[in-house]
Amino acid sequence: MFEKVALIGIGLIGSSIARAIKEKNLADHIAISTRSQKTLDRAKELGLGDSYNIDPTEVVRDADLVIICAPVGAYEAIGKQIAPHLKTGAILSDVGSVKEHVVKALEPHVPDGVHFIPGHPIAGTENSGPEAGFASLFDGKWCILTPIEGTDQDALHRLRDLWVAFGSDVEILDAKHHDMVLAITSHVPHLIAYNIVGTADHLESVTKSEVIKFSAGGFRDFTRIAASDPEMWRDVFLTNREAVMEMLGRFSEDLSMLQRAVRFGDGEMLEELFTRTRNIRRSIIDAGQETDVPDFGRHVSAVEDESGA
Amino acid sequence: MFEKVALIGIGLIGSSIARAIKEKNLADHIAISTRSQKTLDRAKELGLGDSYNIDPTEVVRDADLVIICAPVGAYEAIGKQIAPHLKTGAILSDVGSVKEHVVKALEPHVPDGVHFIPGHPIAGTENSGPEAGFASLFDGKWCILTPIEGTDQDALHRLRDLWVAFGSDVEILDAKHHDMVLAITSHVPHLIAYNIVGTADHLESVTKSEVIKFSAGGFRDFTRIAASDPEMWRDVFLTNREAVMEMLGRFSEDLSMLQRAVRFGDGEMLEELFTRTRNIRRSIIDAGQETDVPDFGRHVSAVEDESGA
Ligand SMILES: NC(=O)c1ccc[n+]([C@@H]2O[C@H](COP(=O)([O-])OP(=O)(O)OC[C@H]3O[C@@H](n4cnc5c(N)ncnc54)[C@H](OP(=O)(O)O)[C@@H]3O)[C@@H](O)[C@H]2O)c1
Ligand SMILES: NC(=O)c1ccc[n+]([C@@H]2O[C@H](COP(=O)([O-])OP(=O)(O)OC[C@H]3O[C@@H](n4cnc5c(N)ncnc54)[C@H](OP(=O)(O)O)[C@@H]3O)[C@@H](O)[C@H]2O)c1
């Protein structure tokens, strides 16, 4: 499918792409670069690629596809550095969780003849680093591409086909709209998960060991989300500020209403909301974006554990 | 262990208790009552008990252990109704998610010679009804008992031993403190999960189908929590108002700080919080309250699904 794919950044997402490409034989050569020698060595030990270089300008040379898989705050510097070394006709893409900022940070540096097509797979786990990835991460998940005006259709199709080969469904969205959708489906949920875990961490009336001990009542599931990579998420909030602020404003307004309902004992309002939210989950399961396996009891995981899987 | 156990309410928790008692042979007879004939018939079809009666006064007759497994808002009426029919020496317990209110609602009705010991298993799933239960739900989970002053130690030990037989670790807490701990580890997390799902449901800038489609970025995990039983959760918020309001106040204060950090681009503050919250998750895994299986990608569930489990 591609001759040489260059990956810059080889954490959860980069290493999952490398594994998926290898497993499905979608490129002749995978070249890997990352920030630290330590991670580069680890990637080599794991056999994720065919060549490794700490210098990104070296790995992009002759690559017909370059995918930036680093936190979005690092994009501008990476873009500036690699731009002069990109091959004419190459596709430059990425996987960043924010898209308008990525266009602003990269587009000015992209040389003529290079096809710049931003992307974002809606798939992930709370783990990070090169060990965390797996080839099936994108299988059955959506990948959003946010091509800019005048994007070469051939290049777009080639990139789309790669994600389809990973098992993803591909959706084309405007970058600004992407950022709004992700603010509510991902960024604000992460922010409030981080927030409640932070709140629980510095209470005086309840000890930390009690929080940990009795976390199975719901809190645990927030800590899972709040265990995601700090650097990646810092960059998401720094670069999608406007949409996050807007959605957070809506969330806070609604929370004030709910707080009033609790204060004044408005059981009807509470039950109405709790019934409505139940239906949304049903829709998500019906849309194939979730399994129906009950998970609070974690008995599925437990069974897996016991069987040694 | 017991001669006759009476269960009033046979949803997720009640039916899990019935299944655990049967599986481990912990009582000679399980008598079941619930609000609706429909659920009672379903419990019978599922073979959850040995006798069934819509009238709770009938099932508690001669029972040496009665466990109320209904939403806490129904407790007072149930307590009044069954009290005159409780056997001397019997233990009256429950599983309600709130404890101070339960003591207030039940204690005045408990006849002399009956041992009233409130309880709360910290285990559950987002599903409800008699089909949702399973015998291993309490295995490896905590169960909190909140005995009132002067509780008979023999009775307390008998009840504790039952939960231990279910596989639970038992902790004794003061009812008021229980409500504070659960407000932060369970009630407020549920409230904010319900809230964000509600917010997403009535946006104009992002369609409901987009929210559903791209829910795998984090939102999905909130819908799981926000799919819990509306009646049960309504009652929790109506009966643990004070502690919920206090913890919600703390949450909102912290969220305002976080909002400022986003607005002013304070990356250091964000990264510091995101790093701190990561450590709490580590502690929860170390405490055995969570498995280390990455779950956002839901590949564990997917594997289970494929194997037909
Ligand atoms: N995690 C998710 O759920 C998810 C989902 C969709 C998209 N994304 C996006 O995917 C991207 C990567 O996230 P991830 O989850 O894979 O993070 P990760 O596991 O933390 O990996 C990040 C990788 O980027 C490298 N890196 C950091 N700064 C760099 C720089 N200046 N130059 C080159 N490499 C650099 C890191 O290198 P060192 O280890 O060498 O420092 C590491 O290999 C982010 O933009 C994120 O927004 C994440
Ligand atoms: N779900 C959890 O995660 C969880 C965890 C720990 C503790 N709890 C506590 O466990 C209790 C039960 O919750 P659940 O999850 O098992 O709920 P559920 O699955 O919705 O079941 C509730 C049961 O209570 C019955 N019921 C309702 N009102 C009643 C009344 N007035 N008299 C007799 N029975 C009545 C229902 O009967 P019908 O179907 O006949 O109407 C149903 O059988 C609640 O107090 C809850 O706070 C829940």
Automatic annotation (TrEMBL), chains A, B:
Database matches in PROSITE patterns: PDH_ADH
InterPro entries: 6-PGluconate_DH-like_C_sf, NAD(P)-bd_dom_sf, PDH_C, PDH_N, Preph/Arog_dehydrog, Prephen_DH
UniProt cross-references to Pfam families, sorted A to Z: PDH_C, PDH_N
Prephenate/arogenate dehydrogenase domain ranges (all copies): 3-292
The keyword Oxidoreductase is assigned to this record: yes
UniProt keyword terms in alphabetical order: Oxidoreductase
Protein name: Prephenate dehydrogenase
Organism the protein comes from: Maritalea porphyrae
